[in-house]
Here is the input.
Amino acid sequence: MKTDDFDYYLPEELIAQTPLLKRDSSRLLVLDKKTGEVEHKVFTDIIDYLEKGDTLVLNNTKVLPARLIGEKIDTKAVIEILLLKNIEGDEWECLVKPARRIKVGTIVSFGDGLLKAECVKELDEGIRHFKLIYNGILVEILEKLGTMPLPPYIHEKLADQSRYQTVYAKELGSAAAPTAGLHFTKELLRKIEEKGINICYVTLHVGLGTFRPVSVEDVTKHKMHSEYYEMSDEVAKLLKKTRKQGKRIISVGTTSTRVLETVMSKCGDFKECSGFTDIFIYPGYRFKAVDALITNFHLPKSTLIMLVSALASKENILNAYSIAVKEKYRFFSFGDAMFIK
Here is the structure.
């Protein structure tokens, strides 16, 4: 299986640069994974495709304002740091630009010394480990000094930082938003619950690896990034009950999907579980947990388009994407949605 098999043509003007005024007013392409049939709807129509007793699984991670601009204490050179993952205590894995300037022992200062970062380890691909030095509460300092780490294909400035968070974001720790969830409003979630559909939350802290292209020719040789996940006992029990009653488990986003499939692969059932997952889902994978998926349109040749192709077949996905391009759907993080039923 070649990485190029998951390529498709996308005009640059279809990459959404800003969120729509109303979260739930985006378009919704509905794809039948068995027949390949496509319907064109708006996102609020999603409720018509959900049935009483179904369970909707959302990722409640919250994005850190983790992009920091500072300067080296010795040379005053401007350095950009993106906090990716908390390793332990105040030690963080970070992506640095320009990385060549940062060696072990280098100290970068932010906000006139309100926050300092000392490099303690050098790794490849611009990754460094830093020890953060500060007084007070780190989250409050980041809210003062940091900005949202928008994906590299978004070139517009985000006017309202909250638009890169879901309305149910709770557990701080992501370097990127679980974007399928950006379409939901509190009112739409309330209407879904009123219809008798269960809503539950898992956590997966999204890393920068989600935007990294697959660089190997052979898909099976790709090394997946690792991300922290959690599923509670309460959620596990609800999912077991849903399955027992013959109802569907509908995942909101590829991140929620990775949690559900990780837990089922590791435990053979839904159980309270946490840890790091590097699960890589591509065609040939047999889904153990997810029946249907609400997702966005993904980058060509990415692990995410491979995941949706595993659920609905590569042919159905690439055909649906071709239709979406023709119909001028908006793509990627701030773009339109797809429901794979």
User: Anything to note?
Assistant: The mean pLDDT is 95. The chain is about 20% helix and 30% strand. Residues 67-145 form a domain with the Thrombin, subunit H fold (CATH 2.40.10.240).
